[in-house]
Every structure is written in structure tokens, then in C-alpha cells.
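Progress narrative, Year 2. Work on PilZ domain-containing protein from Colwellia marinimaniae advanced from sequence curation to structure prediction during this period.
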Amino acid sequence: MSSAISPHLVKFTKQILSLVPYASNDRLEYLVQKLLPEEGTGQHLAVKNEIKKLAQQATKSIDLRLFFSDCEMVKHNKISHYLDSAGKVFFEQKLVAYQNIYTIAIYHEVIENAQERVAKKAINKNNNTHENSHSSKNATFKIDKTEPKPLVNKNRIIHEIKSLNSSCKVFLNPIMGMTSKGKKAVGITASIEKMNNRKVIIRTLNKIEHIKSNKVYLWLYDHHKEIDFDKELELGFEIIDSQSSSVNNNFEYLLKFSLPLTDKQMRVLFFHYLMQKKRAIIGPTDLFIKPLFDSITSKGYEQLYLNKTHDIPLLCYKNNNTWQVKVAMKTSGNDNLWSFFSDRQQNFHLPVLLGHKDIQHALNKQNTVAKYAFILKSSYKETFSYALIWYDEFVNDKSVKAVFNRYFKNGLFRVIKISSSFINAKEDAYVPSALPCHVHPKMAVLNRATPKAAVEVINNCDHMVTVSDITSLYETIYQPIQGNLTEFDRLLPKRYQLSAIDELAEIEIVTAENDELRSEDRFVLSFKMAITRSNNVLVNIPGETQNISIQGLLVNLAQETKFRAGEEIEIELTVPFTEQERRLKKQKYIVLGYDGHGAVRLLMNAIESKHQACRAIRKYLYQHIDNIEACGKQGSRIYGLQKAMRNIYAHNHFSIPFYLKATKHQQYINAASFSGNSALKNLIYKNESSEDIILNLLSNKKFRESCLSIIAALAYQNLPARAFYILVLPKDKDQNEKEEYSFWYRDLAVLKKSSQLQVYTNKLSNLGQPAILKIELKRSNKTQNMHYRDEISYLKSLDKNLAHDLEVQLENTIGIGEVTDLTDIAIEMISNANLTTPTLKKLSYV
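Result:
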């Protein structure tokens, strides 16, 4: 049943369903408060509204023939349902509970009951198959091996919406009793442009003359074979509007389906026809499950990682032969590095890196960059300045080392890794849903192209430079950094200075976190409106919208009027479409309250698919999405740029994220994510790929236990993150080992403390090529992005159990790790540290 309930209210499913039979009871508000005493007024109102939505009378027919072959037709209040025997019993029980009213809640409960019975049957069949082999064994918990989970889903169903229209003739008079031959001879040929159970748009070659009382009749026949419907339909309509079409001077008519003008039997057949047509257009829904599951999984892991990554990615473009930064992404994981590159006014200065001639040279040569540097932050004439020393110059040039000792060593500096790669920003920015647009309006939103304003920002960006803070490696091998910001009386030699950027405002800052709890984006739009009914009393209170979403409005009224939260009203809303202004009357909304400036917050008070204003606003937003201003918490001042930047980084991240999971019975590392940039070139074992090697390392028991202990310490000490470094070398298996190979590995900090770092490194180097990896761990947040919620809500309607398992898997993630290969600089640092090296004890391994 949770598939029919708004995602943010799913946790109250039990309470909502228990109160649906009391939707019209005067004590409903009291009952909601009684069942949810710990929730606030806003939640009580939302739950109450949800109950009333589910208690509305349903018109959809329940068809279980997709699940069971032994279904029979069951009629209730002129609606025909196709139910198996168990479904019929369940349906009748629900009717009793709901006072013999066929509600939306009953529709969804019967469907989901059928799905559960099908799933249970499959499970029982599987259990019976394996009963003999498992009956004598105790239950054991097996820790799954770490699996790759991409941050970008590639499993998509890509096909255009099918055009499955029937042949159509128009008549000015009722056509009951006419022969097919007569109808073909007399009727006016028309083509169906759009059709639903309320309205139809038809097109004719010429204007229809002599129409009486705006009434026409349609004959639908010769249906497309994929619709699987062979009955002829004779339907009555009222003409709402007509206009000359721009296509070949044809005429278009907007028709409203009329119950009085249509025979009872034809009404039933028409609704069945529409259901069959929709099913044929959408296609077999069981084919959607795997692509949708993959898409939700990618979105979930993408949110877990990107909100916490320690990297700062920069999108770069070339302007007048000079590389510049266009977009930078801020996360809670890169707060410290971001603060280091910010001044007192929070202006962001990291783009000064691109002022260095070496980086300009590398980008000009289309080379990838993987360089290490010391960055000093100092003050000159009360203004922040930055200086850079490349680590390889520090090692090889005594004069550079002298500058480091004089200016950097006791100052405020960081050690950073600078990486770059070539990207296709426009292509990478677009990550659609796994399903095509016609499946559901939410999928159409996900499939919408990147907004024009965002495309204009990223269009010429073809490189991504990523900056990582690896200062803790320096502190592990050398010594802790105690430096403070230093005020110099003169700037460092020009060779080391990083040029200041004059126009920092040109850089777009994108915030990775998206804690927007709304189910729809909100836009600044001024539409004329008026409240026309309140408390069943006719009124006329004009006003104007301040901002809108598809489901809600914030309106300023011309006169001060007091409404109570939860009051049901009707409004008249004018939507200024490009082709023609449209006025919508008697639109049902509910008052949520007031904002801080007295504007009234309204929420639709009906099912979205039945709400004319919602559908009209959705259409308007589609038409104008490139030219309207978003409001609310978007993470960027340019609509769509946040999502585009996240997608680009998800395609091109350098570090390898992994995810720590905790269940009632076990804790383990269940997944890791890779991109084309994230190969660990120094982690080598025979012909194994670096991806397989790192997955084996993440699955290793002792490595897992180390990571889990750090996550527990972070939670206990309320710390954001902690990094450690390991010296690792894959090793051949011993006779008693089950795995094909294991690992030598030690913690660099432990080796440094015992003065074994240099000797141990040399010893491992004699056995093979060791890698030195940075492992950074952070606690995770919940996945709550609206697009993730939209897709998992749809998956629930297809496979409730699978959707629940996926939600639980993501919710059980307790920590995020990042693996970064720092072998080159770490080996160099160890070699130059001149550590004392006592006799090495026997190597330990995991």
C-alpha cells in the first residue's frame, strides 16, 4: 500500500490505512493526533490530507489477469473487476471495512495483496526445491563479497512512445443502430491526437459544419492489434474548444467525454479500452524492474558518496589561451580544504591554482595531471595570498627546500594532490531515468534535458581538475603541522606565488548536499488567482502567486484574510500559456499556513492526475523551464547546475568510494564504485585488474574490522572523518588459505611509531611493487534526494519487496570510505624522511 502513499508519509502507512474508513468523520483530526502524538501540526495535516485522498471513490478497474490465469469478472457499482478467488475474498473484506465504498485505498491494497501472494508463491516454490538440502542445517550468516556499484546507471529502457490509435469517425447525431457500412459512409474522418477518460483532441481536414448544441459522437473501430481490444465504441462528447491547426490548415477540436450522451455499456467498454491501450503503450512492466533497480541503486550510492567526498572538483575551460575555472563543488567532506582556500569574506580562492604556468602547460598539451604540491596560505598587507612548491622540486632542489624551511614549515600550509582528466561535460551532465517518459510523469521529469542555463555554463568545459588534501600523509611520515597563518612583510619570490583572481564571482559554486524535502522543484512565477470558495461559502479574494510547484502554491492576497491550517478552499488560477491563456476554475486546495511575510501556503487537495491546475502547471513548466527562476534550496543559483555537476563528477571521480553496512547480525563492506579515472595503477597482482584487487582487499576480514572500528570511533567521538594510510602488497595464497591470494599490509602510522617504516617498505619492495593507499572514512547520511524517492516509489508499485530490500540496504549504510592511490609521493616521502630502521620483525599479513 505504501506505493500509493506520498514518499515522505510512507512511515505512517499503518496509521493512515487504519483511519481511511474515518475520512469523513468529524473526529478525524483528533484521531490523527491520537495515533501520532509525537508528530507536529504540519505532519498531522499532511497525514489527514493523505487519508482523504485515499478515501476518495475510485474509478479504475482492478485487473489481476497479469498475475493469475483463473480470474473472473466481478462487478461493483458499475465497475468491472477481474479477480481470482483469493483476490475476490480480499476485495469483499475491504468493501466491508470501507462501508461498501470502492476507494483508492482498496484499489491499491488489492493490487499489492496480489503482488505479495505471487511473491510468496515463488518463495515457497524455491524453499520446497531446496528443503532437503537445508532441513538439517542451522542458519548461518554469510558475509557477501564487496561488489562494484556504479554511480551512474547505464541500464535503461530506450524506446519512443507508441502511437496505437484507432480509426475514428465523427457524427452530429447519435449513431446507435447504424451498420458499420453506413457509419463509414456517413461519418466525418478524424484522427485522434490525444485521449484520456475525460478529454479527447481530434483533428479533421475541414471545419465541421451544423454542429448542434456543441455535441458530437465518435465511432472508434479498427483498433491497433497491440491494444488487444476488438469492440467498436460509440461515444458522446461535448465540444469545449476548437481552433484552426497550424498543420495543413486542419481543424482541431477539444472534446469532453459525456456520460449522459454515452450508453452505459459503452462507458464500461471505453474505460477498458483505455486501460488496454495504456498497458500496450507502456509495455510489460516486469521488464522495468531490473533497469529501475539499477537506476535507484546508482542514485543511492551516488548520494551517499558525493555528499561526503573529500575532493574539490573544478570544471575548467579555455578562454583566450588561458585555462580558467567555471564551476566548483562544495561538500561537507571537503569543508576543511575549502576553508583553507577561502578568505574572511568566504570568497573562494582555489582557482588560483590554474594561474600556475605548469598546470596551464599540462592542460594545453591535453595531458592528464597527477602532481603533488605544498600550498602555503599567508597574509600580506592584511590580504590572503597563496604560494606553491611542487613536491618533486622540494626533493630535488636545495634552494626550493630552503624556501620551504623559511616560509612554509612553520606556517599554515597543506599538501595536496592535483589530478585532471578530459571530460565531455554536456554528455556526462545528463543522466536520465531508467524508464521512458510515457511510463509516469515523474520519469518525464527525470528524463528532461539539462536546462539551458546550466548547459551554457558547462558547455565549453572539457577538463575536470580535482584537488585532494593529503596533508595527513605528510604528518604521518614527517611530523604534525602546528603552523598558524603568518603575516609577511613582503611576498614570496614570484616563482612561488599563485596569481590572484580578480573576478571570483564568475566561478559558480555548487553545493553537493541536497536536503530538499519537497517532492517537486519550486519556481518564482506570478500567476493571477483568486480564492472563490472557503468553508463552502462563495467568496472573491483576488491574489497573485509568489512561487509555485506542481503540487503547491505560495500566494499573496489583495486583502488580509485569515485562514486556519487545514481549511479546504477552491481557487481560480490563470496559467499564461504561450499559445493561449487558460483559466482554471474550482481548483481544490488546502491551506497549510502562512510564511513569515503573510503569504498563504496552499497544497493541492486531490489526486495529482485528477487535478487540472497541477497538470496545467506541469505543462507550463515544461514549456518554460529554460527561462524561469527556481527558488528554495537548490544548491546553486543556476537551476539544474547542481544536478549537472554531480553527474559529471559521478562519471569522472578519481578516488574509489566504498560503503560500510551494518545489519542486526553482521557488519561488512558491501560495495565500491569505480569510474574510468579510478584505477589504482600501483596496486598490481599478476594479471588481475586493479578493480578486482581492491574488491578483494575491501572484502578482507582484518581490513574490514579496521574500517568498522574507526567508524565506531567517529560516531562515539562525534568526529566528521578520519584517514589512515596502508602499505599493501598482494601475496600468493598459503596452503591453508581458501582465497586465491591475500595481502601483506601494515598501517603507516604504526610502522612510523615503531621506527620500522623505512625497513618495512624496503622489505616489501624486495617481494614486489607495494602500493600506499589513503583510506578516509566518514559517517554517512540518509539518501533522500527527490529523484531517488520518485523512482523507488514507482519500483514499489512493481515489486514491493525488492524496493524494500533496496531501501534497507541503503539505510543500513553506516559509513563511507574513499581509497586514493598515493604510492608515488608516499614512497618518495619515506625515502627522504631518514628514519632510523631497527631490525625488521617477521612480516605479518592479512
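The chain has a mean pLDDT of 85. The two ends are 48 Å apart (CA to CA).
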